[in-house]
Amino acid sequence: MRDLFGNEILESELPAHREEPKKKYTPHGYAAAPGTGPKGEYCRTCQFAVRRSGGRKHYWKCYLRVRAWSSCYATDILLKSPACKHWELQKLSPFRPRYNVGPTR
Fold this sequence. Notes:
By secondary structure, the chain is low in regular secondary structure. 0% of the residues lie in helices and 11% in strands. The protein contains no helices and 2 strands.
């Protein structure tokens, strides 16, 4: 193998590639462990899924964890995650917007 100037490079001179384990991301935005709720339901059909706007982006949070919300992706939820044990069907009203609101109780 040759370098930029055409000089020969020995294999022993090449930097060793270090294999570092990837950091595991543990989401903290869910009220309970995803998948503990009814089968076939997802976070997107839950009434506690709330869209928060921050500038030009939107972030989905669980309203049951409102006190733990931060401006970080660690408290976000994925809408395609299986439902947790606190899942409740959306109760939408024609006069109430779907986004940036809390649950109807």
